[in-house]
Input
Amino acid sequence: MRAGRSDASRVVITGLGIVSSIGIGIPDFVDSLRSGRSGAKPITSFDTTGYDYSIGCEITGFEPGQWIKNVPTEELGRTSQFSIAAARMAIEDAGLSTDDLRSLSCQISIGTTDGESKDLDHLTETQVLSGWEALDPVICSRIYANLLSVAIAREFGLSHAETTTIATACSAGNYSIGNGFDAIRVGDTDIALCGGADAVCRKTFTAFYRLGTIAPDCCRPFDRDRQGILTGEGAGVLVLESLESALTRGATIHAEVLGYGLTCDAYHPVAPEAASVARCMDIALRDANVKPHEVDLISAHGTGTKANDVTEVRAIREVFGDTVPRTISLKSMLGHTMGAASALSAIGCSLAITHGFIPPTINHRETDPECTIDCVPNTSVEADLRIVQNNGLAFGGNNAVVILGRYDEEHA
Amino acid sequence: MSILAIDRVQRVNELACTHLELDPGEITDTALFIEDYGVDSLSIIDFTAAIEKEFSIAISREALPELVNLAAVYELLANSPVL
Amino acid sequence: MKTMTTAAPVITGWSAISPFGLDGHAFATGIREGRRTYAPVDHAVWPVPDEFACLVPGFNVTELLGNKGTRTMNRTTGLAVATAGQVLGPGKPTARAAEGTAFTLGTTTGSAQSMMDFTRQSLVGERPYLVEPALVPYGVMNVAAARCAIWHGLKGPNTTIATGRPAGISALSYARRLLATGRAERALAGAVEEYSVARSWLHHHSRNGNGGPLGEGAAIFVIEPASSATRRPLATLLATEFRTCVDGDFGTVIRMAIRAALARGGVSADEVFLASPSGAPGPAGLAERAALAEAANETAISRVPDLVELIADAGAASAAFQIAAVLSLAAVLPAAGKPALITSVDPDGAVACALLRLAEDPGPAGNPGE
Output
């Protein structure tokens, strides 16, 4: 299956960093995925007076000082802090020292929906109460989106680094992984630090609320009674390098990135379009040289809105026909972490492969007949996974699908 | 069933033209927003938000999908208590 | 996996909406004349701390694009959609062309104005959720690229890259990679930045009042594989290089980026015929200018007008404008077959460099990209 690709042109994942509402770092995250933990709780990071309901998946107890050693934390918004923390974990997990990294070329690409919109919301509050003159210069200096990626370069002193914050909303994590994959394969970079990050903010909660897509209690993907999303936050960072590089330095390989696909619906500013989503999956599978029936698991975009789940399952059925694999949504546990979502779910896929289990779609009571799928409801199951597909669909029809595969040393 | 007053009908039409980006001559009471005019769902939410604001009513999530044309909007308004 | 190629792609078209005017012809003319576009800011319209700004003259979204779909379209999106339309020309693409055309747009942070307007509605409204639904899409950074896709029927890879001032080079490099990996048959790549009250105040405070005057606009390029180009090439994209300044010493990383680009393109410092530094405000920009003079040559820099002098700080559009400026000049100078170097820095740390080889037959003067 991997015939025709040299070690130099195969790309593997050698490090994972996780900041999430169900665990910070690999052991906590795996444990939560196995036990189907929920990150849902009342939102406290902005004043929720006046909303009829305001449950979200915020991260409590994140200590910036634990992860950020070199960049002064007041120069970083919450999202950039998450980015650095996840990057630090991923780099350590990959067994790379700072000196190692500085001697290599790096592609640092953090995907995001909102950048530092939490800070922007605060600035707006100031402007409303006290006028434009009163904006805090410290906050104004840290709201530019590329800082999410530059902050990582600064923290680790990486000057031979391209920083590219990819702002394709809720699929940005997958875009970033794909970008890293391509950059390594065409020889633009040695190492790719890729992923996604976002922080809960009033702006995004209100946007989804206005569209009637915020759930009052919990996120129930594929369920007949699903009401929408819970907004969440966090960061996921993956270290990507060529197989040759990983083998040469004796790195532990989590999984292989087999390929990816990108399409644009060119249809509607927020609603998804099934044909374009199906085409994206097709392109990803062909890029990975994988047939639909070889896919063991799909990690869906699975937001839990009426529109998304129906459209996504329709697209899956179109591509997979009679061989639709089990299809889960990690958003049932994490909420919708926006730009971090497809990065965290790619990490979830990678861990599922190496640990041999399928995380469940929690909060499931009754599958909606309009989007029938085996979503592995409520309880994780042991499973031998070789190929996993990770879907990312975004506002504006920015679709990105990534295919991951188990790396088997014996069969390399 | 109550009938909507003529000035309110006019106002609804004006808001429809603005928010659904239709010409006054184009719009009829029975033609369907999505199927006949190609209006996208976000514009419909925007239009209904303007109706809520203009007439001080709240439109429930369940009632939204029923607002398929102007006639449906008139009926909703005629039967809605003012907040 | 499709066949990969590392052959350098070609730029075969471009357009720009800028303080010089509403299309690429106006831009090219403005560059060749070296015309300054600074004008006093009308504070009744723009309650900002700036005294001067370089605005797109007479820019009005509905006038440029018509009434349908533009009622709530923000300035950033209008600039991008209109510029993309000029590059593409009239008529919808075939199904094959639609799927095979990628669109990559650079930005700083989308429209801060739209985002803050949205949040403001939430803060001051009777209920915090009584915001205008039609504004929801404009609160995210990828709306301009998405709207361009909807408007022009582009279904290939659609990407928004938020790298600030170097974003035009980032976008071209990303598009180059899409072509190299066979993910698209051609790409539109460029960048956009709007002038707004929010941007002006954020800039003012973040640079402690030393940011300098602001400009705005969009520039978008068509980039294709050399082997399958459907239009006459204007330039070959020989190399793009990126670095990050992590210690305040911009000069060193810029020199490294330039040298790497020259090496990759097989070009010597003396050969560079046109060179454009970004003119970023403060020490970063000064270090950049000195590094470019040292790693390329001063004469090359002197042939290109200082863009900040003409159109101020165009934010994410600045590197894209620099490239458009070089192409505008190539058509009226003895530049055929010669290299051009464009550098850009963002005060947050991103550094970028693009090396072009101008085409042997850049085309008639006054007709950018056609």
